[in-house]
Amino acid sequence: MDNNTTQQIAKQTEIDAGNLPQASSGGFGSLIHGKKRLIILAVLVLFVLSALAFYFFKGQNKYSQSRSLYAASEAQIAYESGDLDTAKKIIEDVLKNSEDDPSLNIAKVNLISIEGNSTGTEQESFQKSMPYIEKALANGGNENPNILSSVGYAYETAGEYEKALEYYTRATEINPKFAEIWFHKGHALEFLGRAEEAQSAYDKAYEINPMYPLLLLRRGSIFMASGNFEAAIAEFERLLQTNATNEIKAKALASLSSIKKSQLDIPGALELSKQAIELSPNDSRTVGIHGYNLAISGQRSEGIEHLKKAIELNPRISWNYDVIGEIYRANKQYSEAIQFQKGAISKAENDNTILDMKDRLEAKGFYTYNLAKTYAMSGLSVDIVPLLADAVSLSPKAKDFLILDNNRLEIYNNYENDSRFTALIQ
Question: In sequence order, what DSSP letters do the residues of 43-55 get, joined into one string?
């Protein structure tokens, strides 16, 4: 894509593909995001261990309470330092002697959910968490808003949004003063396409705690999508002043990097994504953003290495595949580009970093257009018209990209007399 084009994949949180030197492509930067259109957070909200002090059995003795609270505190420290394995081990060890403790069972559920969400293995993780969910609910959890919200989060990461909403709603009914639970409820409603209800839930969370980090991250993302960069920057910078985890702060820095990139300040974007990856070196989205920044800064090999690592960390994020494909295409390595762009298409419909199925299909349409374009640029003997037709049917914006590229490039000259092609550009 040329140096005046900023590519942004529709409604994929905190990610906009920037100016890849010497490549030739249109992008989703031309999409207009309506004010009511919402963006997914890079990582679903965590209720990790901070509220475990409230999770004890009715009638549990002080020794058991102290042991649970100590384990929760130690595990939380390990998690916040980025050591998920140690956090899991702490909870597993204490569970051996307190296997019915709802606080420890739900801590185990949270850690399983977090791991599944960060690695793209949500379904497998959800199945692993079910025995612990059942124990937590059977031992007083049905009346505990913290436990209910954590169960809702497990269902949310597994993609069962109606069930998640059920648990979040029950939690808000028991205690309507928890900003975190209202935030989660809004997120589930967002996945279900109920935007106005989601906004009401988010507004309620903001009334209760206007400094809740993940709420600030979402608000900043919405401002960024609408083009209100000044307001977005203010929200992200407020987040950086909170006690948010390194992972969440890294996402704010990555978003600030995206703003810099959209303003064509590539060095500034690269510096911010570097800071982000230092805080959270194993978050797939953060690694992917930094990899793209490296590539558009002329460090293509390093960029590809980071993007491949991002795929290893979470193979479900379709954007990473497409971006690698564009880098390879810019290098005229068409076979590699085709391989990764096919990967993007195959991942799009199950990419839970894209809000709903309509948006996933729109992204799939963009990836399909990119694949067709790569075939056209490669000179391979492939009939790309069916691919272009699929792209246009999935994403109306793909037609705009097709017309733009047809007017300024020569890659579609072989199809000028093909009635199927001419029908697509009319």
Answer: SPPP--STTGGG-
Comparing 216-230, 345-359, 391-405, which segment has the lowest mean pLDDT? 345-359
Ramachandran angles phi, psi of 193, nearest 5°: 80, 15
Nearest 5°: phi and psi at 382? Answer: -135, 135
The SS3 of residue 344 is helix
E strand map for 52-122:
none
**Whether the predicted pLDDT of 2 surpasses 50:** no
227-314: CATH topology is 1.25.40
**Where are the domains positioned within the chain?**
52-206, 227-314, 321-426
CB atoms within 10 A of CB 382: 15
User: How far is the CA of 366 from the CAs of 25, 154, 397, in angstroms?
Assistant: 11, 31, 8
Q: Which tokens hold the place of 286?
A: 């953060």
Query: CA–CA distance from 254 to each of 85, 309, 353 (Å)?
Result: 25, 17, 15
Token pair listed for 105 = 């069972």
Global pTM? 0.72
Hey, is 355 helix, strand or coil?
A: coil
Q: What is the Cα–Cα distance from 114 to 135, expressed in whole angstroms? A: 19
Considering only the top CATH level, what class is 52-206? Answer: mainly alpha
